[in-house]
TrEMBL record:
Entry-linked Gene3D superfamilies: Winged helix-like DNA-binding domain superfamily/Winged helix DNA-binding domain (1.10.10.10)
A molecular function GO annotation: DNA-binding transcription factor activity
Annotated GO biological process: response to stress
SUPFAM superfamilies found in the cross-reference section: Winged helix' DNA-binding domain
Domain of life: Bacteria
Name listed for the protein in its UniProt record: Winged helix-turn-helix transcriptional regulator
Pfam families: MarR_2
Matching PANTHER family: HTH-TYPE TRANSCRIPTIONAL REPRESSOR YETL (PTHR33164:SF43), TRANSCRIPTIONAL REGULATOR, MARR FAMILY (PTHR33164)
InterPro entries listed in its UniProt record: HTH_MarR-typ, MarR/SlyA-like, WH-like_DNA-bd_sf, WH_DNA-bd_sf
Coiled coil (UniProt feature): none
Span of domain HTH marR-type: 1-144
Length: 144
């Protein structure tokens, strides 16, 4: 019985995906507390500047979220006057999303906040280690 228990042991804290998830979760928690929004809204806000106008379907791809989550986040952002969502005149099934003036101002604040928190997380690393970490994680992200 003891041998079976030993074969089932798994140190979660030594599992890289778990470590990455915890680090990301803590970073997002800090951002969300200051930003006053949830991760789905933040992802949309940060994706839009480089890709607007875009469709809701595009946002699903850009933010790695399903359509239901994007739709809920869009509604919340629209209620906050951060974005505008209008029907495409050429394709009535398509919703076109853009940042509002208020949303554009908020993105400026959110970008600064995100970089500040990222710097705090990475401050223990030297410049070479930071570059190596970013390259390695970027490569993993591209492959997945």
């Amino acid at each position: 019985m003891r041998d079976q228990a030993n074969t089932l042991l798994f140190d979660l804290t030594d599992f890289l995906p778990f470590q990455m998830s915890v680090i990301a979760g803590r970073a997002f928690q800090q951002i969300m507390e200051v930003a006053g929004m949830q991760v789905p809204e933040w992802r949309i806000m940060m994706a839009l500047p480089a890709h607007q106008p875009c469709s809701s379907q595009d946002l699903c791809v850009l933010t790695a979220m399903d359509a239901a989550r994007v739709s809920r986040a869009q509604r919340r952002l629209e209620d906050l006057d951060m974005i505008s969502v209008v029907r495409d005149t050429a394709d009535r099934r398509r919703l076109v999303v853009r940042l509002s003036d208020k949303g554009t101002e908020e993105v400026t604040r959110l970008k600064f906040l995100a970089r500040e928190i990222e710097s705090t997380i990475l401050e223990e690393l030297g410049p070479e280690d930071r570059a190596c970490l970013k390259t390695t994680i970027g490569g993993l992200y591209e492959r997945l």
